[in-house]
Amino acid sequence: MTRISCKDVPAETLYDVLHDTRYRKKWDSNMIETYDIGRLTVNADVGYYSWKCPSPLKNRDFVTLRSWLPLGNDYMIINYSVKHPKYPPRKDFVRAVSLQTGYLIKANGDGACILYYLTQVDPRGSLPKWVVNRVSQFVAPKAMKKIYKAGLKYPEWKRRHDPEYKPWVYPEQNTLPSMSLAELSVQHADSLENIDETGLPEEHLSTSDHEA
């Protein structure tokens, strides 16, 4: 588990940042594309996310079921990978699997919070050990810092971009098509193609921006 103390960012603001797909394009430089697919309940949906991996690794993508829950002054968001018949694996991406990923945002005094992040992801592909080590040591902490910085800038950005539009808070604003849980199934990693990337040398890794 990774955690970061977010001074000057209220819990509800960080909660908005993690939900707002339009804003994500502003701070997540490794995101290629993200969009919502459909709504299951007032606090659960299905979405798509693709991630730019450092060259020469292949880019990854996910289809996940996400649910969220306000807990008084605290908030929780969790997701796990699912199979959707209209969004099968694509040839230009390796379909990765989120076994379970979660954010817990706890209020920490007046106008501050602590963000906890826990993830179990199978990136698929037989990745070299140095890639796994680098991800565990650097990617999550850098991602947390990005989210914190995004939280500091979000109120000003949101004031200029549909400030009243928050379908994750006001479900009546949600215009996603409704879908049934019966349309989905859990995405098991062993049913996906395994790409062998073990032979990739570390010195050839692109270091332009791979913080996740």
TrEMBL record:
The keyword Phosphoprotein applies. Transmembrane segments: none annotated. Coiled coil: none annotated. GO terms for biological process: lipid transport. GO terms for molecular function: lipid binding. It is found in: Cell projection, Cilium, Flagellum; Cytoplasm; Membrane. GO terms for cellular component: cytosol; membrane; motile cilium. Pfam families: START. SMART domains: START (SM00234). Its main location: other. Gene3D superfamilies: 3.30.530.20. Residues 1-156 form the START domain. Keywords: Acetylation, Cell projection, Cilium, Cytoplasm, Flagellum, Lipid transport, Lipid-binding, Membrane, Phosphoprotein, Transport. InterPro entries: STARD10_START (IPR041951), START-like_dom_sf (IPR023393), START_lipid-bd_dom (IPR002913), START_lipid_transfer (IPR051213). This is START domain-containing protein 10.
